[in-house]
Amino acid sequence: MFDEINLKEEDKKLIDTARSLVNPTEVPGGAIKEVGCALMTRSGKTFSGVSMHLCCGIGFCAEHSAVADLTAHSDETEIKTIVAVGSDKMVWFPCGRCRELLRQINKFNFENCDVIISEDKKIKLKELIPGNWR
Q1: Coil, strand or helix: which one is 102?
Q2: Residue among 52, 109, 51 at smallest CA distance from 79
């Protein structure tokens, strides 16, 4: 189905980082930290984030939080590798909104960003976006 790529040690460290962020916590408006995300830039810097599942649609995914961390603390937008880990401590695929965010912040990401999809495999972002509308 996909052109899967085996993980490297740096990928496994990203999974561990994302997994360490998961700590589901109830708050008055919903739940936070149900998903953790870690990403590595082309230059090798790591950024991370957590989900905020809140009422009224004001929350966001962990991938969005990690991209916000990236843009707040660097001038980079090229993502080499990204992973999300859910409350079950398993690697999760990014949702469509997150896939599109990754594509839109840098044209490099569509063709070259690796998305970790399991404990031992990753694929290119372009394989998760069925049609390029731009």
Answers
A1: helix
A2: 109
- The answer as to whether 16 is a domain residue is yes
Q: Find the domain containing 25 and state its range.
A: 5-128
Describe the crossing of helices 62-73 and 96-105 by its angle, rounded to 10 degrees. Answer: 20
Non-local CB neighbours of 67 within 8 Å, separated by 6+ positions: 39, 47, 49, 79, 101, 102, 105
Q: Is residue 81 part of a domain?
A: yes
Residue 133 domain flag? no
pLDDT tier at 117 (50, 70, 90 boundaries)?
Answer: very high
Which residues in the chain belong to E strands, given as ranges? 5-6, 25-27, 30-41, 46-54, 79-85, 91-92, 114-116, 121-124
Residue 134 has a pLDDT of 61
Tell which wins on pLDDT, 65 or 134. 65
Structure tokens at 126: 């372009």
